[in-house]
Amino acid sequence: MSERVKAIATGTLFGGSVDCYVLANEMRVVSQRGVIRALSGGTESGNIGRYIGRLPNKFAHLSSGPALEIELPGGGVAVARDAQWFVDVLKAYKAAWRDGELKPSQIHLAKNADAILDALAGVAIVALIDEATGYQSLREFDVLTRLFERTLRNEAAARRRLWEDGLVSSLCQTYRIQRNDSELPAPLMGVIGWIYKLVLGDEVHAEMKRRNPRGQKRDMHYQWWHDELRDLIEDDLRIIKALSDTSADKSEFKARMLAHYRKQPFQLVIGGAR
What we know:
By secondary structure, the protein is of the alpha+beta class. It has two domains: 139 residues, no CATH class; 108 residues, no CATH class. It contains eleven helices and five strands. It has a five-stranded mixed barrel with strand order 1-2-3-5-4. A hairpin with a 4-residue loop joins strand 1 and strand 2. The chain starts with a strand and ends in a 13-residue tail after the last helix.
């Protein structure tokens, strides 16, 4: 067997009969004992090679699927097989049964294989393992962590003007907000927050607000962006100004923004309510 890889998440499938794992290299595997339990309905044990060897010769390639010795999170080792290999074995039993190529003593194995394939019902076994082991949540957390590292600072940078007069004036006109001497009129702040959410995405927007909570000494949100993100947003602000300039009112502007950033269908209503 090859060098051991550690399992970082564990779970069970099909009513607990098959132990499944996500390895440190993100490979999804099932325990070899679990494969035998699943095929036999929990009544048999032994070497999986014996089961594969009794299939028709056209399935001989399945015997070459490598067994992996893996380290378990709580200590100890287990022998595992690639999850897709397990599905291929199930399909082989079903196909051989359908073609009348099995001995009577193998029919119960094929029936169990068929039942498991029905349980999969077109769902990828990788997705089932991710759900059973909780790895989906771990992966999403890791992806978000890397996203935040690329986009948001841990401390606010020096303040530099982002919302130029032309864009502010355009939005004030679109939303019928009275423009005063302040850089950003208070009634416009909610609009800006909504724009940030659309442009940045829900996750980054929520993390930005967490790092920069409401308060008297609150920084401007953009002070928490990495320079690369700020450059991208500045390009977006030019698009947003064009959308605002060409919208008759805030309803049309909102609809155009949702169509552009969230791919929601846009339908312009002329001469009627929006």
